[in-house]
Amino acid sequence: MIPIDGQAMLTAADTRKAEARAIAAGVSADEMMARAGAAVGEQVRRLAAGAEVLVLCGPGNNGGDGYVAAAALRRAGLPVRVATFAPATTPQARAARERWGEEVEALAEALPAPILVDAIFGIGLSRALDEGVSGPLRRLMTAARLTIAVDVPSGVSTDDGVCLSDLPPANLTLAMGAVKPAHLLQPAAAQCGTVRFVDIGLEAPSRVRAAAAPVIEPPAASAHKYSRGMVAVVAGAMPGAGALAASAAARAGAGYVLLLGSATDRLPHAIVRRRFTAEALEDHRIGAVVIGPGLGRDERAEERLVGSLASGRPLVIDGDALRLMDDRRCAGAAILTPHAGEFDAMFGRGSGSKIDRTVAAAEGTGAVVVHKGPDTVIAAPDGRVIVHSGSSSWLSTAGTGDVLAGVIGARLAAGLEPMEAAVQGVWLHAEAARRAGAAFIADDLVDHLTLTA
Predict the structure, then answer these.
(1) Which residues make up each annotated binding site for AMP?
(2) What is the pLDDT of residues 129-148, one digit of tens each?
(3) What are the E-state strand segments in 151-227?
(4) What would the pLDDT profile of 367-382 be if each residue is shown by its tens digit?
(5) Can you tell me the distance from the alpha carbon of 171 to that of 371, in angstroms, rounded to the nearest whole number?
(6) What pLDDT is recorded for position 28?
(7) Does the pLDDT value for residue 242 go beyond 90?
(8) Cβ atoms 368, 419 nearer than 8 A
(9) How far apart are CA 195 and CA 380, in angstroms?
(10) What's the CA gap between 394 and 269, in Å, rounded?
(11) Residue 160 DSSP label
């Protein structure tokens, strides 16, 4: 099993296209199922530790993978049973069912086993499971010690992360051939448990990928504070938010942090404080301007936003500044960091998955968009997408978004292109949360920022 970090992500339709390309290249559908089923069987064998396995098979090719896996487990000497609720319907699944050659129990009557393999429905499910399927599945999952889902857990929507049925989460999901949106988009991602990639030789070109730990180089031997990156943070009505952003920028690698317009004294002495003026942003050494944390939405906030947009400096636009943007566009490089409510206010609720909506927002604004949440989707105007999931749920506290804005600002000022700056910032922010543990506040998060893994 392989961690999904950095792996290509495919929708259900893209996966079918990849399978069609493999068939056109000479790999038969039977061979693909044999590879998938054998891979599932091997992973289950390792985890079962000799315990009895119950494989639940659906009527399609996901069920066919289950039959192949069950046969492999039987050959390996494990006690294994198979249950289903319907006959196999595809040629490959029917052939796999015949090769299993043993009794197939009725799903509704199947007795539990310590190890449960869910191969009922894979990609492409679009409606809730019938109670005749979901009821027995819930009962068997509850009784199992370990539940392993093949490709995606039954009852979730592959492309948008929606849970179509109320079922217990799997402990492990094996992503067959490619990562799917459901593996990272909430709430489906929570149903997947731990997700591991299984390579079955499927070519999966995609501009959408799962996040991976970035490689962050130390400053060059010749570095100085301005070459490290100068960040200007524009404060406003709630100076504490600006202070958080400025402190985070300093901890995330910036060589010089300038806080403009703040009256707060709760700052490291290394952070320079000045009154806000449009002229202050004309300093050519400024590599990034962060505006929005605690800005407010009054006339003064509007003036500071106008001045920041006119500066031509690379921008990180967060919080209140997003609400004031209206139809304004940035003159230069920009990163927008809305949470769900801010995103909806700016772009509307729209349709499609969180990935689809974020890509459309990036294309429409010409900016990198960091659509924050328990799953964070980062999209560039050119169609590149990184999806980050699994961050600490303790991030759901005031001020953590201000910290993220400062971290991204530091990476942008360091000279990274906006997409890479955003990707690094989101990862560093999540890593700080992991280090901080439980029940932290945003101030604690700043103290746990580090550029080393």
Answers:
(1) 372-376, 401
(2) 999 999 999 999 999 999 99
(3) 172-176, 194-198, 208-210
(4) 999 999 999 999 999 9
(5) 27
(6) 93
(7) yes
(8) yes
(9) 26
(10) 29
(11) T
Q: How many CB atoms lie within 10 A of CB 447?
A: 13
Burial class (CB in 10 A: 0-12, 13-18, 19+), 151: buried
* Cα–Cα nearest to 354, from 337, 384, 320, 378: 378
> What gap in Å lies between CA 48 and CA 234, rounded to an integer?
56
> Can you tell me the distance from the alpha carbon of 213 to that of 200, in angstroms, rounded to the nearest whole number?
24
The separation between CA 123 and the C-alpha centre of its own chain, rounded to angstroms, equals 18
Residue listed under structure tokens 């407010």:
296
**Spatial contact of 416 and 406, defined as CB atoms under 8 Å apart:** no
Residues in binding site for (6S)-NADPHX: 61-65, 122-128, 151, 241, 294, 339, 402
| b/e code 23-47 from CB counts within 10 Å (16+ = b) | eeeebebeebbbbbbbbbbbbbbee
* Tokens 């990156």 found at: 229
Closest to 53 measured CA to CA, from 61, 42, 62: 42
CA–CA dist 167, 112 (Å, integer): 16
Q: pTM score, two decimals?
A: 0.96
What is the token pair recorded at 126? Answer: 């679009």
User: pLDDT tens for residues 165-200?
Assistant: 999 999 999 999 999 999 999 999 999 999 999 999
Give dist(CA 432, CA 394) in Å, integer.
11
First to last CA, the chain: 22
E-only strand ranges, 68-224: 80-84, 105-106, 115-119, 146-150, 172-176, 194-198, 208-210
Known binding residues are 61-65, 118, 122-128, 151, 154, 241, 294, 339, 372-376, 401-402
Which residue is it, tokens 């003026």? 277
- HSE-CB for 305 with a 13 A CA cutoff: 25
Rounded CA-CA distance 411/413 in Å is 5
Domains of the chain as residue ranges with CATH: 2-208 (3.40.50.10260), 225-447 (3.40.1190.20)
**DSSP alpha helix (H) spans, 212-313:** 225-228, 239-251, 299-310
Positions at the binding site for K(+): 62, 118, 154
